[in-house]
Amino acid sequence: MGEMKEEIQNEEKTDPRVENHFQVSTVIVEKRNKYAFACAIVASMISILMGYAGRISDWIGRRYTIVLASIIFFLGSILMGIGSSYAVLMTGRCIAGVGVGYALMIAPVYSAEISSSSHRGFLTSLPEVCISLGILLGYLSNYIFSKLSLKLGWRLMLGIGAIPSLALAVGILTMPESPRWLVMQGRVGDAKKVLLKVSNTKEESELRLQDMKAAVGIDASCTDDFVKLPRLKGEGVWKELILRPTPTVKRILVAAIGIHFFEHATGIEAVVLYSPRIFKKAGIHSKSKLLIVTVAVGFTKTCFILVATCLLDKVGRRPLLLTSTAGMFVSLSGLGFGLTMVEHSKQKLMWAISLCIGGILSFVAFFSIGLGPITWVYSSEIFPLRLRAQGASIGVGVNRLMNGTISMTFISLYKAITIGGSFFLFAGMSVLAWLFFYFFLPETKGRSLEEMEEIFGSRTSSGDEIEKGGLEMANRSA
């Protein structure tokens, strides 16, 4: 019962023209808009709870989808906290899971849509920061609530999630709607007002508005505050995404699905959820030592995510992603080797135990500096506006499927091929991930959301070549 409670608790914790864009980048390179920053932080709070959304965010807007996610999770948390039977507990868990799904999609999408291209990576990675913070808080609360009686401890652990969801539902009332969603609804005047708030200069807001208008087919010379646009039906969107995608949309969809797949196929869920069990297999049996190294995992994850947020818009997505995956391969190989040596040795091998601890911490660090945050940044920024909500929801669906698959099969996996063998398998997946990212994911740093189709329309996959081409175009236009 205690082990099941621990896994349930941890699981809960468990987004002329070229010249103009380059001019905007030089204007705002040293200044981050505080209002956009604040909005992204509030939206990202929902990711402490986690979530999934799609067509609903196109119907009611990004902001009210976050409200809906908060309310759903609030109800689910209350049910889990007061659950008087297994049926009530699982009902609450399922309801909370719906809220979790909405939030995972909408937080990065909202952050990406209110951000300028020069700081989009930083703001869109904030949801992953909050997820890591939630995991760390989960580890700490496990320790705090473990001192209470079992009956009261797990109820508080599951029910306390209602507090941040309620706070978010209130905080969301002070946030503006996504300007890109407003333009998609024909509410150009409202979008202009929001852009003036989330941009550093009036010129920047006007340039961003012109791009958004062009993306939905509004003439650049149109000055009306409201424009009646043809409504793109939901089935039309799914047809363009799944049934008859253009080569460009197909590349975007493959990139989004692939990055979400490899985020979990490389083993992060096994490490986060089962780190106490892994440390026991490595030879650490003291409860106090297990607590220390487990909290160290959460602390390492949070610290390196913060480092990644500062580097995303400076270094770029591709360099961080490739470095991250390569480091994960080395760490997983070391962890697999260390666990294998411990398992086959009759003596206590301190060097092997140290290698296991170092392997887990370095794996979490490399994951957090690249693949962890970039998965959400990248998948929320590459889809065209008309397909963004549904496209992002497909990515999140794959993400949740892989999350559940790794979570539920890890124990059976390591019993079948040994725990060391399971991490050698994850190391192999890291090699496949590196190759996929190198050949299929172009650089998106510094490019507007409206330029993504152009980036993926190019057959080159080298981010450096894409940036070089953009610079040459800018120089010619200048």
Could you describe the 3D structure shown?
With 478 residues, the chain is mainly alpha-helical. Helix content is 79%, strand content 0%. The chain has 25 helices and no strands. The chain has helices at 2-13, 17-28, 34-44, 46-49, 55-60, 62-82, 86-114, 120-124, 126-145, 150-159, 162-171, 179-184, 188-198, 202-216, 234-243, 247-265, 268-282, 287-315, 317-344, 350-369, 371-381, 388-417, 419-440, 452-457, 463-477. The longest helix has 30 residues, at 388-417. It is globular. Mean pLDDT is 78; it is low at 1-30, 45-52 and 459-478.
Summarize this, please?
The protein is an all-alpha fold and about 475 residues long.
Low-pLDDT ranges: 1-30, 45-52, 459-478
- Mean pLDDT score: 78
Radius of gyration: 23 Å
H/E element order: HHHHHHHHHHHHHHHHHHHHHHHHH
The biggest beta sheet reads: none
Annotation, overall tally of beta strands: 0
Helix segment tally? 25
In terms of DSSP E residues, the strand content is under 5%
Give the quaternary arrangement of the chains: single chain
Shape, principal axes of CA atoms: globular
Q: What would you call the structural class?
A: mainly alpha
Give keywords.
478 residues, 79% helix, disordered C terminus
Topology:
Blueprint: H1 2-13, H2 17-28, H3 34-44, H4 46-49, H5 55-60, H6 62-82, H7 86-114, H8 120-124, H9 126-145, H10 150-159, H11 162-171, H12 179-184, H13 188-198, H14 202-216, H15 234-243, H16 247-265, H17 268-282, H18 287-315, H19 317-344, H20 350-369, H21 371-381, H22 388-417, H23 419-440, H24 452-457, H25 463-477
Helix pairs in contact: 1-9, 1-10, 2-14, 3-7, 3-9, 6-7, 6-10, 6-11, 7-21, 7-22, 9-10, 9-18, 13-14, 16-21, 16-22, 16-23, 17-18, 17-20, 18-19, 18-20, 19-20, 19-23, 22-23
